[in-house]
C-alpha cells in the first residue's frame, strides 16, 4: 500500500473505530467481543483499502462487514455462551449514586437486555436504524437486503422489543 493510502486509512480508522465499537457492542452485548469485531473489520478494510476508497462507499461497506463478522462470530461453536439473569458480582447499592441516576441506568440496562434478546437480523436492523441513525436505504445497503426487508424487520423488532420491555416494566 502506498504511503498516501496508508495515511488516509489511518484517518478513516481513527474516525470510525469508536462508532464501530459502539455498534458492535450494541449487536453483541460484550465490550471485549466488540473490540475484536472492530479490529477484524478494520483489518479487512486495510487489506482492500485502495479499491474501497476508489469506490467511495466506505460507510455501507464497513457496516456490512461488521454485521457479517458479528453473525459469523455467533456461529462459531466456542461462542455458544449463554447470558445469565444475574451477574456473579453485584455492585454495592450504596455506590450507585442518586435514585434518578440509578433508575436511568436500570432503564438503559433493561433496554440493552431486551435488545440482546432479539433475533440477530432484527437486532442488527434496529441498531443500524436507531442507534447509528441510518436511513432505510442505508440500512438495506449495510445488511445486503431490500428496503422492504428492513421495514419489516424494524417493525417486528420494535414489537418484540416493546414486549420485552413491558415484561420488565420499563417504559
The overall pLDDT, averaged over residues, is 84
What's the helical proportion of residues? over 70%
Overall strand count: 0
Instruction: Indicate the radius of gyration in whole angstroms.
Output: 18 Å
Between the first and last Cα atoms, what is the distance in angstroms?
Answer: 51 Å
- SSE order, as H and E? HHHHHHHH
Determine the strand fraction and express it as a percent band.
Answer: under 5%
From the spread of the alpha carbons, the general shape counts as: globular
Structural class estimated from helices and strands:
mainly alpha
Q: Could you describe the largest sheet, including whether it forms a barrel?
A: none
Oligomer: single chain
Low-confidence stretches: none
The number of helices is: 8
Question: What is this structure's SSE topology?
Answer:
Blueprint (H helix, E strand, L loop, with lengths): L2 H26 L2 H17 L1 H7 L2 H18 L23 H18 L3 H12 L4 H8 L3 H21 L4
Helix pairs in contact: 1-2, 1-4, 2-4, 4-7, 5-8, 6-7, 6-8, 7-8
Can you walk me through this structure?
With 171 residues, the protein is mostly helical. 74% of the residues lie in helices and 0% in strands. It is built from 8 helices and no strands. The chain is globular and about 55 Å long.
